[in-house]
Amino acid sequence: MTYSDDLSDLGAFEKALENIRTSNPSNISANCLVTLCKVLDNILSEKEYNAKTRSIKLNNKVFHESVGRVSGGIDSLLACGFSYGTLHAGFQATGDR
Question: Is residue 22 classed exposed, middle or buried when 0-12, 13-18 and 19+ CB atoms within 10 A define those classes?
Fold first, then answer.
């Protein structure tokens, strides 16, 4: 998946966050939300565009455990402007929206 600066749909983001909160055990929800905050904070903290902080390999085991498998996890990234893209190394989040 990759990220663009367009927060496309605030309502979809709120719905995804609510899904994370209500559809998962509290410890899984909390871990997912902390990870999502770290991802978004890294992007917002950039002084200039950095493709590495704006892409996520969906097949990464740690990412999959903390966000990918969590109901609402991927939806929240999509609502924040991430989109699906493919690379030779596997799926990745990209900023091309």
Answer: exposed
Q: Which residues have CB under 8 Å from 54's CB, separation 6+?
A: 2, 3, 43, 93, 94, 95
User: Which 8-state DSSP code applies to residue 68?
Assistant: I
- Determine contact, residues 66/76, Cβ cutoff 8 Å: no
By residue count, the chain amounts to 97
CB-based contacts of 89: which residues, under 8 Å, 6+ apart? 57
Q: Each residue of 1-52: pLDDT tens digit?
A: 655 555 556 789 999 999 999 999 999 999 999 999 999 998 889 888 878 8
| pTM assigned to the model | 0.76
